[in-house]
Amino acid sequence: MSVRVTLALLATLAVACDSPSPTAGAQAAATPADPFLITADAGLLSRLTIGEPADATVASRQTVAARIDVDHTRVTRVGSPVMGRVSRLAAEVGQYVRKGDVLALLDSTGLSDAQLAFLKALSDRQLAERAAERAAVLLAADVIGEAERQRRDAELAQARAEFDAARDQLAVLGMPQEAIDELARSHRINSVSRVVASMDGTVLHRMVSLGQVIQPADTAFEIADLSSVWLVADVPEQTAGHLAPGDRLEAEVAALPGLRLEGTLSFVSAVVSEDTRTVQVRMVLPNPERRFKPAMLATVTLKDTPAVRRVVPATAVVRDGDREGVFVQRDNSTFVLRPVSLGAEFGSQRVLEDGLAPGERIVIDGAFHLNNERRRRLVRGEES
User: Are 265 and 284 in contact (CB under 8 A)?
Assistant: First the structure.
């Protein structure tokens, strides 16, 4: 090979070494720019307002579904003290009753047996009384001794005790004193037992029907005093941790439009419902006119104690997918979209929980336009 050819080959190799390889160029072109970074031109900058998060005194508000419920401290369950078959119903659901009113009548063999035992005890007591009286006369005539008189006195004491027990048993079974006195006078057994109201109130539930046989352990009626009711709400556990009795609330009842209720929490449950993952709270609601009825639907707005929090305007917040973020200023014209953690909304402001360091400046107005331009440039870059 000649010297001239050798020099030409060396020159070709040198040029090849100085030129960038196609693979390296492709890798450089494939390196993507930051999709959350944008540099605004002068026209876009004129539409933006830059500032910092501000401190504001806010009180969180949370609206949850609620309902009117009975005050369970004012509820009584009424049953029959004896087994019997229902022969008459004297009260219906929704009816107002007073203490002592008859709710139902039963035919009861148990009551008949108790009355028969009472009459037997009454007869035994009367017999023992006459025997004791005769013993006193015979002792005075020196016909019997002191020991015989004492034996008859002991029999009288026992007969009186058994009579008192039989009378008390009838009272326990629901017989009023005048009925017991009439039984002692007439010796006529009445097998009808009465189920009576044990308090003033409204019949909430009736669990028996005509002809039904009920046991002493069965509940026949449920009565509630509705002069005071509960407003009950189930608050999600994620937001119930700060609630405490005494916290302020507002409420509206769907069936009573225009009526706005204000009050305080009287109870916050100490447990979380495993089924609904909620915490029950309630407020005592005076109800002298019976306007609020159990099971009425309502909405409750819970208000937290005012506190100073960092807030950003709602105009600063943009949504990217399922995340919320704000544009943080890098330099005079460059901004980056950064995810932040935001809390409750108060008017036109959102509480800033996390995501920004003190002193960082953000786009507080015009973020919507800036985000639209960022998306447009991303689309244009994909199409080019």
Answer: no
> Is there a domain that residue 20 lies in?
no
- Is residue 197 in some structural domain? no
Backbone CA torsion sign across 145, 154, 113, 175? positive
In terms of Cβ atoms closer than 10 Å to its own Cβ (0-12, 13-18, 19+), residue 75 is middle
- pLDDT digits over 70-113, tens only? 999 999 999 988 889 999 999 999 999 999 999 999 998 888 88
For residue 269, give its domain range.
63-73+224-306
Domain boundary among 288, 306, 324: 306
| Residue 254 DSSP SS3 | coil
Q: What is the pLDDT of residues 212-243, one digit of tens each?
A: 999 988 999 999 999 999 999 999 887 787 78
Domain end: 163, 189, 215, which one? 189
Residues 138 and 170 in one domain: yes
Separation CA 221–CA 224 (nearest Å):
10
21-54 pLDDT per residue, tens: 444 444 444 445 788 999 999 999 999 999 999 9
Same domain for 349 and 293, yes or no, is no
Angle of helix 146-172 versus helix 177-186 axis, rounded to 10: 130
* Domain total of the chain: 3
**Residue 360: CA count within 13 A, CB half-sphere:** 19
Write down how long the chain is. 384
Task: Give the separation between CA 45 and CA 61, rounded to whole angstroms.
Answer: 36
